[in-house]
Every structure is written in structure tokens, then in C-alpha cells.
Amino acid sequence: MASQPLPSTLKVWQAWPGRHTFCCDGRVMVGPDFGVTVFAATLTTGTCVTFWVFVCTSLPVPAFVVGAVLFLMTMGFLVLTATTDPGIVPSNRGMEQAEIDACAQAQRTVEINGVTIQLKWCRTCHIFRPPRAAHCSECNVCVERFDHHCPWMGQCIGRRNYRFFLGFVNSCCLLCSYTLGLTCVFIYRVATMDGVKHGDFFSHAMARAPAGVAIVAFCALILLCVGPLACYHYSLVCSNKTTSEEIKELYTQSNPFDRGVCGNCNEACCVAIEAPRLQPRALVTEPLETGREGLIDASLRDANAGFTSTSESYDGSPDGLEACSPEPDEERDDAPARHAFTRVVPSESKGIN
After folding, report:
1. Which parts of the chain span the membrane according to its record (predicted)?
2. pLDDT digits (tens, 9 = 90+) for 14-37
3. Between 224 and 336, the higher pLDDT residue
4. Domain ranges of the chain
């Protein structure tokens, strides 16, 4: 059954073809696995509350303060990672089939630090992906500098939220190490005060401080998982690679994005986060008869269609590709200029709240 045309006042987030969920009129975006994120946050909060109630009450006040600061850091980075646009590249799923077939046959390359890289055509989003971008089947979108899809964060980890993910991993390791260490000290003090011998230590701890034993077991398990993950991402940051690139072994000889250890760390952690290409609160400007998916893509149509074979230079910056101009259509002098992706005008500029 054909879909009814939607009103032109519809906003992008209301017709979003991906699997994300939008809140607060498109101001907040979460991934399809947000329920897992809530579970992880609840588990972390429950563990910390247990630690504060059963362990910190017998320790100096600074022990509680430090633990609270680490907890707030962990939860803050978790929320930022889960709700930040990872670098979604707007799709163009409203293209005509003839244009799709033409683009799928075309070749488009960019040159980065003397290395020619062929851009991949996404058959789902109908765009040429920028360098290092990939399509996430879980979220059904293309993401710039795609690292991986993290179910615990509920969405993809990409260019715009990778540093928040690093912050979460680091703060989680610190929180678990701190909680584990103080809980072990607490259990040891209880056993020493009761005059327990080493042979009866575990059974006494289970009897006198079962909550402490549970905290130790949980924190040790998390550290065994998150600790190696943190070390792995440290190596990725230093070599300027993503998890996806490392798994696929894309740069076995040389990495065109490598800027040296200091430059790579600066790029990952210190460079200003660029504005999102996706504008969820922008108005969809051209209603189509193709339903919600065609409607949202109509507003991006002139930006994401048709490419001819060409070779361009790319400076490695996120906006470098967007600045490149494709070769004009030789058969159509009036063909509009098109780029791999673009922005749509935010609704605020049109007076829409």
C-alpha cells in the first residue's frame, strides 16, 4: 500500500530512516541498543551505591569523595558517548534507480598524503562514503571514521564521539581499580580485627562482608574486560587506526593518516569536534510519495547524487572531501552541482522551534 505524503513541516528526525531514537524534539539522539546502555548504567550505579553504603562508611571521608568523582566521570562519559552523533553521513535514499546504477558503476578517488584511496559506494545510503567511513548495519547509517558499534554504548563509535568513548573506558578502569582496591583493604581490616587466620580468610569474608566480596568479584571481572580494551585503544590512537581498519588489516605497509604519536594523540583527544553533518531539527523541504524514507532524503537529494569518475586531492580533514567538486555532467549542462554529502538548514534559522 502506498504511503501517504507527509507534510512539508516535518523535521528530519521525525522521518529518520535509521534505527536511532530521538528525544527533546531531535536535540538528543540515542542508538538502537539504548536499553543495554541503561542496564550498564544501572549496574554501575548499583555497584557504587553498595560500595558507598557497606565499605565507605568505615573509611575516611576522602575515600567517598574520590569514589564519587570517578563515578560521575564514568557516567558523564557514558552519557556523552551514547547521546552524541558519532558522525553520521546524511543518506540519499530518494535517488532514482538510474542514478543509483550509474553511481554504483562509477569510480571516485581521493589522494591523501600521496596515497590514492578509492571511495566506496554505499548501496544502502546511496552515497560515496568519505575516507574511513563505513556503514553500520545495526544503526543503518554511514558513520565517519567508523570505529565499531558498541552495544554497551547503544550506538556506533565514530569521529565525533570516539574521545568520549576513550574517556569512558579510562574512567571505568580507574573507578573499578579504586573500588576494588579499597574493598580489598576493607575486607582485610575486618578479618584482621576479628583475628582471622589466613586459611579461614575467604569463608570469614563471605560471612562478615558478603557485599564486599561481591564488589571485588564484579570489579575484577570488569577490569579483566575493560583493561585490555583500554590498552588496545591506546595502541590504535598512537597509530591513528580504527578498530575496523585494524581488523581488516587495511594498512599493513603504511598508514596515510598517521601523523606521528603526538599528532595522532592530539587528533584523537584535543582537536575541536566538528559540527554534525546531520541536522535532526531541520525541515524536510520536498514531500514525496515514497513515504518517510523518501521524504527525508528529498532534502538531501541535490547533495548526494550522481558522480563521474574523478581523482581529487584530500587534505585529511573532515571537511576536505566536502570541498571537492565533482566533474560536471557532460550530457547535462544544467545539472546541479553535487557533493558527496552536505548539511540541511536547521529549523531554528527558519523560525521553527
Report:
1. 34-55, 61-83, 164-191, 211-232
2. 888 778 888 888 888 888 889 999
3. 224
4. 12-350
